[in-house]
Specification:
Layout (H helix, E strand, L loop, with lengths): L8 H4 L2 H11 L3 H8 L7 H6 L4 H20 L6 H19 L4 H25 L3 H28 L3 E3 L2 E4 L11 H18 L9 H11 L1 H5 L4 H18 L1 H21 L4 H11 L8 H19 L10 H8 L8 E5 L2 E6 L7 H37 L8 H17 L10 H16 L19
Antiparallel strand pairs: 1-2, 3-4
Helix pairs in contact: 3-5, 3-8, 5-7, 6-7, 6-17, 7-19, 8-9, 8-19, 9-10, 9-12, 9-18, 10-13, 12-13, 12-18, 15-16, 15-17, 17-18, 17-19, 18-19
Length: 464
Amino acid sequence: MAVTSTLPAAVRRPPGHVRAHLVRLGPLLPGVLTVLLLCAPVHEDASRTGQATPADVASGLLVLGCAVWLLRTRTRPLDGPAACVLAAPAVACAVATAASYDPGASLPGFVRYAQIFVLVPAAVVLVLRDPHGFRVLAGAVLVLALVQGAVGVRQYLTGTGASYVGQDIRAVGTFGPQDVMGMSAVVSCGLLVALGLGLAPPAGSPRRLRPAALGGAALLLVPLAVSFSRGAWIATAVASAAVLMLAGARLALRTFGVLAAAAVLLVGGLGVGSQLIGERMSSITDVTAAPDQSVTDRYTMWAAATSIWRQDPATGVGPKGFAAHRDAHASLALSSGSDTAGAGQDFRKEPLLSPHNMYLLVLSEQGLLGLTAVAGGWAVIMARTLRRLRAARAAPPSPARATDCGLIAAGLLIWHLVDFGYSDIGGPSTVLTGITLGLAAWWALGRGAVPESGAPLSAGAEAR
């Protein structure tokens, strides 16, 4: 008599299938490790001096593993246009480094730019082979956001965070006051991952995934709020609204209502920093009428960056050159530095070494050549991301649904494009920028991106 097995199909799979699955995800492990290592506290000296962190080392392993794989297989994983989009920032930065006033001092900046904007994103594009790998890496970002968010909320509630208006209540996670924007960036990225998963759950996923993902996005609003980061608030609001609209107008309205109600309950009803948050939000509209010193410093550095660019319009003054040329171009309104304290660290005045605007930083240090290569590449990735997402939503449903990947990719890229208007790279959390840009680039350029029709899109193919 035949016996019918009652075990789930996943349990009945032969060991060979499991081994093949692990082998397929093996190259992705350094990327996951890079993200999860950002949960570890960073030593104060490493944060201040820009020393390599464990996450940076893991990202190096990710890049090295891709290089070895390319040499062994001798394959061409990207077509010409896609490779040019990813490589152009490195070429432009190399030219700016060679043409700088002090190439030796600019060399570390070139290495950092290459790591964050070229090598790590390209490695992510190469190790991701299908939407499942994308979800694994994006899930690691969500886990990181939940861990850092929990630490940040605890800091706010116990008064052990970074100093803000005379109180140690600013949530900074494990990044410390030297990287005060780190936790807000991590939480924002995790929120967008959760939102994308909740709006378009993968085919065959558990029914509880949607409410769990949307609930996680709502919970992450709390640490984002008590980070008191105006730039992150603006970027998250814009990116979330864009993701909601890309998912569909009706679904956007329903989800926005749920998230708005959750925000009112968590922040207003429970009194989670409501007064301080209200004051911080109102300061956004006071940046021209009565700006605080941080806003004054930012405007002054923006003007200085523009003045530095006029000095060398084509190639700029070289990576790491802004700090050396700042005082010759800044007005007397610029303060001597920003005060940092709290989160287990003593008071320290940190020098203002960048204009806190990624576009102006690239313009001043790499000129029009660098800005065209960097921003132009992002524009191409954004256009192809939206095109593939439109094709995925228009195609008939299939088991290979990847709309969630497209929504996440679009949200992460839009967040960075907006946030870069208020911040730039720097600090231990910077390596996450390379990972998230890689996720967006994979959806836009990678051969393994799969629309809902189930047909793979090559890097050079048009999504129809």
